[in-house]
Write a structure and sequence with these properties.
CATH superfamily of the largest domain in chain A: Zn peptidases
GO molecular function, one term (chains A, B): metallodipeptidase activity
Largest interface: A-B, 31 and 31 residues
CATH class of the largest domain in chain A: Alpha Beta
Order of helices and strands of chain A: HHHHEEEEHHEHHHEEHEEHEHEEHEHEHH
Oligomer: homodimer
Number of strands of chain A: 14
Structural class of chain A: alpha/beta
Number of domains of chain A: 2
Largest sheet of chain A: 14 strands, mixed
Main location (chains A, B): endoplasmic reticulum
Keywords (chains A, B): Carboxypeptidase, Endoplasmic reticulum, Glycoprotein, Golgi apparatus, Hydrolase, Lysosome, Metal-binding, Metalloprotease, Protease, Secreted, Signal, Zinc, Zymogen
CATH architecture of the largest domain in chain A: 3-Layer(aba) Sandwich
Protein name (chains A, B): Carboxypeptidase Q
Shape of chain A: elongated
Subunit structure (chains A, B): Homodimer. The monomeric form is inactive while the homodimer is active.
Radius of gyration of chain A: 25 Å
Strand content of chain A: 15-25%
Chain lengths: 474, 474
């Protein structure tokens, strides 16, 4: 045994010891916070959890989440806000729910943006002619009919933009080339890029697609024009083309692009869909599971957010089938127009403002339904301890991890900001942003077994929280 | 220590012991075959190998393969057979070589196919309207101007096609949906699919793209019409769309597609390019390194085969710069029209038939230039033992592996079938078929360090084989 080896062993020992200590301290403090009675009550649900898990992974529901999701997205494809196909898909999922003898369903109408992509083409004219893969960003205006032809200036970050001289930006096409760190950080170049470039005099702006990997894959998504700026056309291009343009410019050559884009924007009526499985003892107290039914206009919206939609659809269906009616009401919400900045969720907030405090716990899955690992939970320490203890029941499927997240989910952030505890599905979604808002968001991303496990976890957690004797503290 | 653990240890021990034995036997037999003198002579090249490795990975050549490849593919983009851009790229690489004071360059003209992709569109009309991503296959004929509209029949393999009743195929669009096993097996559905479907009366054929992973990525490639069949239009569609159509058909629904494709086919003159670094003692004896300069008409042809082209371009350049002139001639060949079935290589074979036996060893890199692992070697046991011993010199870069391959490379198979020993670059190309023949074959697939290592290995092996006192046995 050489010295290096001894040393490495020592370091490993110290590391594992100190890590074990942290975990133990957290566990100790949760044990103290919860007390033996609460922990015992949580563990009393082990049999119910097993029943749900068996039914979903081995019983009649095995493969059903995948199958129903596939039928749905194959039938409708993409379901953009404001379209007839979205409304038809809402009717379909309502019928699917009624077929399960769940009839406590209401829809709430609201006005949603209806942005329609027309023809889009970007051609590099200099230093050579090349077509670029492109997806215009949501709410982008059209170019003039003759297109926009201009030189490119490449901008790495907003600091560089702000410190640029206005004469270097004026009349140019800005291409943002940010390093992809996290989605929430990098997406600012997509959402605010056009407005900030326009303020400096740019006549169009493009953004390196917000994702870490590409096979010539542009990623669309929403952008919002600020007030008092000229609304300039804006689109996403691929990692590959952005890097190509960067290399060309770095060699001292000029890049000239021609952008031709058409689009239209108006508003339509859509609906949030609310499915209730009424509670036996506290029907006014709600445990909400949810996903959004709209998608971008590319791919099938299978991952974003078909998977989240269908595990949330499945929860009351499974409980109904198993005759497991909890004390509180399980409410499943299928949000509309999430992709246009939580339009459905804001409407729900406004409409139900007086009753928001009746929400005991709110869940949303909108970051993929890959293999479930646990939950990302927002709320106070006691709430997190309760959920952490519940997650211990899911050791057999390796879904015991609680991640602290002060604003889990997407739509439900509009609700949790009122101090209501909530959670999103924490899952093995490393490749989520490979497919997000691309033509590649299809059933090929989904896995039958992973969906079953997600459905089982989602349903069982919702049931336990809805049935347990105490409310989730806030 | 429990019983299971003891048992597992025993199994591991037995496995590692027997594996070690096999390796030792091979090594023993190579040692016996080669003899001490040969082994000693091979190891006498260790300093030269170090010099080349240092120069390429730390010295003036560091990053140069990547940079020159990037400049080349950024300037020309895709370089399809028969196009002016391909001929311009040949002129460019000749100039680049002359700039290195290497002037022993000849080009050999030959007739090549010039197939041009026009407009391509596939629309699913039933059960709903959806556009499919498409890439027509090389040599495909056009559809009639009004397109081809017909029902789809899905075929998993040729056995199923052959056993199908002709009335089930006649008038239909065949979609091949083979399981991707290896490229060489699965590609038959691309190359022969149209002919075999046509023979059964199909009016068009499509193939699930030949690759294991996709982000809505169609993969083009060559297909060849057989004699005495109607030439029907043929194209590749994505894994996602093939799976979608399969699910729809499996549900008992009918799929109707409309295919609109235009293309043209004629012949043009292109050139093989031959760069010689003349040997000091045996100038007629050749050690050939090679890659092909043409590419498909999508992406940049950076991976297929820009990387192989540039590590082969680099070999004589580096030896010239380092003043390392071997006994035999190092010949670098940039094959043309590989993508239309080795047209350049066949011309070389025909033109040099009388001198083929002067080729001592021939190498080609055409399966990616990811991190090099060693070489795939064709030839007799003694030839393989020599190369295996040479590869031992590359332990510091983990490129010591010899894979036995009776037909390494692509173009060079036309030469090695004459009994000439040869090798291709064995590299960490697990993702090669993610990008192969797609718009995603760009510089983003390439890595600077991996290209340096590939260049160093390629150059040093070529030098040693060209300089060593004995010929590679055959």
């Amino acid at each position: 045994m050489n010295t290096y080896y001894v040393c490495a062993l020592k370091i490993l020992f110290i590391l594992s010891f100190s890590q074990a200590n942290v975990i133990k301290q957290n566990a100790d403090s949760c044990q103290q916070i919860l007390g033996d009675d609460v922990i015992r009550e949580i563990w009393s649900y082990e049999n119910v959890k097993d029943e749900i898990l068996r039914y979903v992974t081995e019983g009649d529901f095995k493969g059903k989440t995948y199958d129903e999701l596939a039928k749905f997205v194959d039938k409708f494809g993409a379901r953009p806000s404001g379209t007839e196909v979205l409304e038809n898909s809402i009717d379909y999922i309502i019928d699917l729910t009624r077929a399960e003898n769940i009839n406590d369903i209401v829809t709430e109408e609201l006005e949603v943006p209806h942005w329609t992509r027309g023809e889009e083409r970007i051609t590099m004219l200099q230093p050579r002619v090349k077509n670029l893969a492109v997806l215009g960003l949501g709410r982008s205006v059209s170019t003039p009919p003759e297109g926009i032809t201009a030189e490119v200036i490449l901008i790495n970050d907003f600091a560089q933009l702000e410190s640029s001289k206005e004469e270097d930006i004026r009349g140019k096409i800005v291409i943002y080339n940010p390093v992809f760190t996290t989605y929430s950080d990098t997406v600012a170049y997509r959402t605010q890029g056009a407005t900030r470039a326009s303020a400096k005099g740019a006549i169009a702006s493009l953004v390196r697609s917000v994702g870490p990997f590409s096979i010539d894959s542009p990623h669309t998504g929403l952008q919002t024009y600020g007030e008092n700026v000229t609304q300039i056309p804006t689109a996403a291009i691929t990692l590959e083309d952005t890097d190509l343009i960067k290399r060309i410019i770095d060699r001292g050559e000029k890049v000239i692009l021609k952008i031709e884009m058409t689009s239209s924007l108006d508003t339509k009526i859509s609906r949030n869909t609310i499915v209730d499985l009424k509670g036996t003892e506290k029907p006014d107290s709600l445990v909400i599971v949810s996903g959004h039914i709209d998608s971008w206009d590319v791919g099938q919206g299978a991952m974003d957010d078909g998977g989240g939609l269908f595990i949330s659809w499945a929860a009351p269906v499974i409980l109904k089938r198993l005759n497991l009616q909890p004390r509180r009401t399980i409410r499943s919400i299928f949000w509309t127009a999430e992709e246009f900045a939580y339009v459905g969720a804001y409407d729900y907030e406004k409409r139900h403002l007086d009753e928001l405090q009746n929400i005991n716990f709110i869940m949303e899955s909108d970051e993929g339904t890959f293999a479930p690992l646990g939950l990302a939970v927002g709320g106070n320490q006691e709430a997190r301890c309760i959920i952490a203890e519940i997650l211990k029941l899911f050791e057999s499927i390796n879904a015991t991890t609680l991640i602290e997240d002060d604003s889990p989910g997407s739509d439900i952030a509009i609700i949790t900001k009122h101090g209501i505890p909530g959670a999103s599905l924490y899952n093995d979604n490393e490749r989520y942003f490979w497919f997000h808002h691309t033509e590649g968001d299809t059933m090929n991303v989904e896995d039958e077994r992973d969906l079953d496990l997600g459905t089982a976890l989602w349903t069982a957690v919702a049931y336990i929280v809805a049935d347990i004797s105490f409310d989730i503290p806030r």
